[in-house]
Design goal:
By secondary structure, the chain is α/β, with parallel strands linked by helices. Helix content is 33%, strand content 24%. The chain contains eleven helices and 17 strands. An eight-stranded parallel β-sheet has the order 12-11-8-13-14-17-15-16. It starts with 5 loop residues before the first strand and ends with a helix. The relative contact order is 0.18. Its EC number is 1.5.1.1, 1.5.1.25.
Amino acid sequence: MSESPVLLNKHEVERLLTYDDLIPRLESVMGKFSKRDSSEIIQPVRSVVPIQQHSGFLGVMPAYLAAEGILCTKIVTFYQRAEGSSLPSTQATVLLFHPEHGHVTAIMDGEAITAKRTAAVSAISAKLFKPALSEVLCILGSGQQARSHYDVFTKLFKFKEVTSMKTGNTSKSFKMCFCVCDPVLYTLQVRVWSRRKEMAQRFVNDLQDPVTVCSSVKEAVIGADVIVTATGASQPILFGEWVKPGAHIAAVGACRPDWRELDDVLMREAVVYVDSREGATAESGDIILSGAEVFAELGEVLNGSFPARREKTTVFKSLGMGIQDAVSAKLVLEKWNGEH
């Protein structure tokens, strides 16, 4: 008789799942996935059931990693909520199974896993593709994905601008004055935009660092070196004419074939990377509707089979993968078992 499954809530998952441990595992599994060895990794494209009456979808994301002994699936719902709705747009649960016996070994909150593994993969893309000198981070969105991206990007990278201002001038970030003869100062340079400005302000109020709330997408992205799009948009909000040449865009919203965050100009002029070619060409409206060519998978760059075109404007289009959930959940369970 199998033991009862371990039940882990959102708080426990967030506590146990750290970026320092997670990122190396994600790099490893995505590299393995891109080698297309079906005896080692099996991951079909996400199955989606439309819930048209309520503007929602139910997605199922299974994965089997034979070498690691991981059998997992995530069940996720995502909705286009009305403006001002207090309901979450995405909810998820992750199940781990015993790969030999077939019983469920763990049931855990999937929202925390989704938020952290998505942000971690975006950070991997930024490590590979962002300009060598990156001073300005821009985040479009103010939800859970925006926060997880802020956390990992400011943890791993130093976004800063040199401040050496004449007396009487004001730093946009700190609203303080500096004499030109003062030592050079480095200030955190992060900009945030949300469709509802009060939500962007609430996002900023929860942070310990100074962040600039912008009133328009254009204001937020002009001159930005790294741009994260984590919105519920179904039509383009980010336009290529606003994007600094050589910038890197991590696009994590618009996960349906008729949804967009990025316009045709940006998609066609940038070097486009994806997590999975099969997923991107089946699910990404940004790719399907623009006709943009996929240059490489992230795993192919990690394997060294394709280059990181850091000198170009780059887009990493993230759809999310079952293998990412699987290694994240296995890591959470390993840590929990280590404590009990």
